[in-house]
């Protein structure tokens, strides 16, 4: 985490945030529903009290003249889901910029952002992770995998 | 002295040299593994503790030795015959979630560190949700696992 949690006013309610989904690691088999789906772990924050959940900010990628769907599948292919920032905030979460530059063992990502809890905590609540899953729509779809 | 055996015994990259080290290899060990779950999950633990940096498209780290070791021991303690082995899902911060989705329940046990666990059970029929934080007494989880039979 490079910045303290905050809510970025320049990220508007209708702006899209993108969460990458690893096809190898984030997908589970759900025997109740008889289908593959994204694990709730993919919609949770890192465990440090002030850590967040990594996302990409679509409008920053577009403003830089890049194709967001290419951007979020590079350098490692990942599926991804998108959600509107305003709806994320309604879950008592903040959305902000957290650009990555010159970090050890991590490629630069000037369009990187975070979703944070508004109070220090180890994890999002179940209502928040479920809320994020309900908001999510495919951005780069993983075939035969349900969002939640 | 309790006997230990190599439950998950291949080389683990990216794990700081620590408790159990032989040359450059670090192993996740379970004392006296007895369950089918330990056998079923051996390769998965090895995979998770060897994940490449950035595996999640961001700064994802491999599952930490401490989380993997603790999760392996917790799984061994929770073993119930007739219930399939859980699925294991990594977090980008080196944590690990143990989960089952069967018998009308979602059970998710998020291992954040040694003796630092958040667990959720959802009854998908009634919509009831239970969330508990566990640090020393993990016995409530046994009842949850029994209900998965």
Polypeptide structure, described:
The complex is a heterodimer of chains A (148) and B (149). With 148 residues, chain A is α+β, with helices and mostly antiparallel strands. Chain A has one domain. Helix content of chain A is 17%, strand content 28%. Chain A is globular. With 149 residues, chain B is of the alpha+beta class. Chain B has helices spanning 36-48, 65-78, 139-146; strands at 4-8, 21-22, 25-26, 28-31, 87-90, 96-102, 105-113, 116-123, 129-134. In chain B, the strands form three sheets. In chain B, strands 5-6-7-8-9 form a five-stranded antiparallel β-sheet. In chain B, helix 1 packs antiparallel against helix 2 (65-78). The longest helix of chain B is centred in the middle third of the chain and has 14 residues, at 65-78. Chain B starts with a strand and ends with a helix. The chains are: A alpha+beta (148), B alpha+beta (149). The interface between A and B is large, with 36 and 35 residues.
What are the salient characteristics of this protein?
heterodimer, A: about 150 residues, alpha+beta, 6-stranded antiparallel sheet, 4 helices, 9 strands, globular, B: about 150 residues, 5-stranded antiparallel sheet, two-stranded antiparallel ribbon, about 25% helix, disordered N terminus
């Amino acid at each position: 985490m490079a910045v303290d949690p905050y809510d970025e006013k320049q990220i508007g309610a209708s702006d899209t945030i993108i969460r990458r989904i690893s096809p190898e690691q984030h997908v589970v088999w759900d025997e109740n529903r008889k289908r593959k789906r994204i694990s709730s772990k993919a919609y949770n924050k890192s465990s440090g009290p002030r850590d967040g959940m990594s996302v990409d900010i679509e409008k920053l990628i577009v403003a830089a003249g890049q194709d967001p769907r290419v951007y979020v599948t590079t350098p490692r292919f990942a599926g991804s889901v998108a959600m509107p920032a305003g709806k994320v905030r309604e879950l008592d979460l903040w959305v902000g910029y957290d650009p990555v530059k010159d970090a050890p063992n991590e490629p630069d990502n000037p369009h990187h952002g975070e979703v944070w809890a508004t109070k220090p905590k180890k994890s999002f609540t179940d209502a928040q992770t479920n809320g994020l899953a309900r908001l999510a729509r495919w951005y780069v779809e993983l075939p035969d995998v349900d969002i939640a | 002295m309790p006997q230990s055996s190599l439950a998950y015994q291949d080389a683990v990259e990216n794990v700081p040299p620590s408790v159990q080290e032989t040359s450059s290899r670090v192993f996740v060990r379970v004392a006296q593994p007895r369950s089918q779950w330990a056998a079923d999950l051996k390769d998965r633990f090895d995979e998770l503790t060897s994940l490449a940096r950035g595996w999640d498209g961001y700064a994802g780290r491999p599952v930490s030795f401490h989380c993997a070791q603790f999760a392996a021991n917790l799984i061994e303690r929770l073993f119930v015959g007739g219930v399939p082995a859980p699925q294991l899902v990594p977090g980008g911060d080196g944590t690990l979630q143990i989960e089952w989705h069967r018998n009308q329940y979602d059970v998710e046990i998020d291992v954040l560190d040694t003796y630092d666990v958040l667990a959720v059970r959802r009854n998908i029929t009634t919509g009831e949700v239970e969330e508990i934080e566990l640090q020393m007494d993990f016995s409530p989880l046994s009842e949850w696992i029994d209900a998965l039979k």
